[in-house]
Design a protein that fits this description.
By secondary structure, the chain is mainly β. Helix content is about 5%, strand content about 40%. It has 5 helices and 39 strands. The protein is elongated, with a radius of gyration of 29 Å.
Length: about 475
């Protein structure tokens, strides 16, 4: 309940109702705009003897509600009955200039929607889920703009209130306790940082000059780890956290081939805490297409286990960071549960995909609300427009033993979890000790330039010589 008290006026809110056969009343002094939760009314209600009343719920529509004050000189109590607030169905936030790399972020918006009191809200920004420090927009960055709005006297927001920012559908969060509405919108990424030299790439350029969304043909190919007798190659998908980049395995040199998502495709599994899948509500069992319990996840976890150097050296594994990625639980969604997502935190993980939006897949950090909201990887542009099909971690809904696969050059498809496909994984590389990347062949007296870069790591504690 929201009470709009006039400036410098002290009044008393009264709520009077009946709990079965017991009459009760609640009152509170109010001297400013105040939001009063129904829980506060429940705990503060009193009966005719002045004793606390145990209320399991409060239905304000069945109560008499008013505000009053006593004027001493008149020796009278004056009251005003509560009025129904007018609901604000939708709001339009405008005049936020889309972020441009190198330019100042626009920090003031406009909202002329009737019933909204915050007409020039302040705009705050996040990038990769973290608050932005500084006012200039960076390169290759997706900024989320957020404003907080208040309702004018006689108006209110609800959980059904919708909003737009610059005419685009926005995310909305309503706080019933404060009466405020928070509106957010993520703008398209800013431009890439221009490369100074395609064969010598600085740390800033590694984070801000490459992606895989297919908007242009500038891609960054790097070596990291081994694959049999070959050096494992990866492509830079972008950055989803400070001082790091996300690498996605080269589809022409997958980490493994002929791999099942899950061998036991016929039986559900009893949930185990050993899987380290974090839910809001832990399930009792899962389908065979559950990534967190899958054989595929086990294969990837083994590659980065402490005693396994088949793919990565101990020093390389120190540069590899785990990523929190959300995935959907097909069984919980089939059962109509609203909290049907969970997250895992591994170093290596498969990309995510959406069967109904299948021209791209995503890697990097995502969220329960936006499972396909990571860094985009186009399946119709080089280098992921060719190669063998590979597993994604997403289940195919309505079929407990089917999961999604990426078809390079085509689209996201599906097949039985017991089918054999390639393994193309992603991971986050910590750049804190990386100085630069160069396409010059490494550690040789006969160097040449290639199409693939090697990371050069700070060698202060490894090299005693000086150049």
């Amino acid at each position: 309940m929201i009470v709009d008290a006039a400036e410098e006026e002290t009044v008393y809110l009264y709520v009077q109702g009946k709990n079965g056969t017991t009459d009760w009343v609640y009152s509170q002094e109010v001297s400013a705009d105040t939001t009063i939760a129904t829980g506060t009314i429940k705990s503060g209600a009193k009966d005719s003897n002045g004793s606390a009343v145990s209320l399991t719920s409060v239905d304000l529509s069945q109560c008499e509600i008013w505000i009053e004050k006593k004027v001493t000189d008149d020796n009278l109590v004056y009251a005003v009955m509560a009025k129904e607030f007018e609901t604000i169905a939708t709001v339009a936030v405008t005049d936020i200039t889309a972020p441009v790399a190198g330019a100042e972020l626009d920090v003031v918006a406009t909202c002329n929607t009737t019933g909204v009191s915050t007409t020039t809200p302040t705009v705050s920004y996040t990038k990769n889920g973290e608050s932005v420090s500084g006012n200039a927009a960076g390169y290759l960055a997706g900024y989320t703009a957020t404003v907080e709005l208040g309702a004018a006297v006689g108006y209110k927001f609800t959980n059904e209130t919708t909003a737009t920012i610059n005419g685009n559908e926005a995310s909305v969060s309503y706080d019933a306790d404060t009466g405020k509405l928070t509106v957010s919108y993520t703008f398209d990424k800013t431009a890439k940082l221009p490369l100074g030299n395609a064969y010598y790439v600085t740390k800033d350029e590694l984070m801000s000059s490459f992606d895989l969304d297919g908007t242009d043909d500038t891609v960054g190919k790097v070596y990291f780890g081994t694959n049999g007798s070959n050096k494992q190659t990866w492509y830079i998908a972008g950055s989803d956290a400070a001082d790091s980049i996300v690498l996605l395995c080269d589809p022409s040199l997958p980490m493994a081939t002929g791999t099942m998502f899950e061998n036991d495709w016929q039986n559900n599994k009893t949930y185990s805490a050993d899987w380290r899948c974090t839910y809001e509500t832990t399930p009792n069992e899962v389908y065979p297409n559950h990534y967190g319990a899958s054989d595929l996840r086990g294969v990837l976890q083994e590659y980065t286990s402490n005693d396994n150097t088949e793919k990565f050296s101990a020093a390389e594994k120190e540069l590899m960071q785990s990523t929190k990625v959300y995935t959907d639980d097909d069984k919980r969604k089939d059962e109509g549960e609203t909290d049907y997502t969970y997250y895992t935190e591994d170093v290596l993980y498969p990309a995510y995909g959406d069967y109904d939006d299948g021209k791209f897949i995503t890697v990097g950090a995502n969220s329960a609300e936006s499972l396909n909201g990571g860094l985009k990887v186009s399946l119709t542009s080089a280098p992921y427009n060719s190669g063998d099909m590979f597993w994604l971690r997403a289940p195919y809904f309505n079929h407990s033993s089917a999961a999604l696969v990426a078809g390079p050059g085509a689209y996201v498809s599906l097949n039985s979890v017991a089918h054999d496909y390639s393994v193309v994984s992603a991971f986050r590389l910590n750049l804190s000790s990386v100085l630069f990347a160069s396409a010059a062949t490494a550690a040789t007296s006969d160097a040449s330039l290639t199409d693939t870069m090697t990371f050069r790591v700070d060698g202060d504690d490894k090299i005693t010589s000086q150049a």
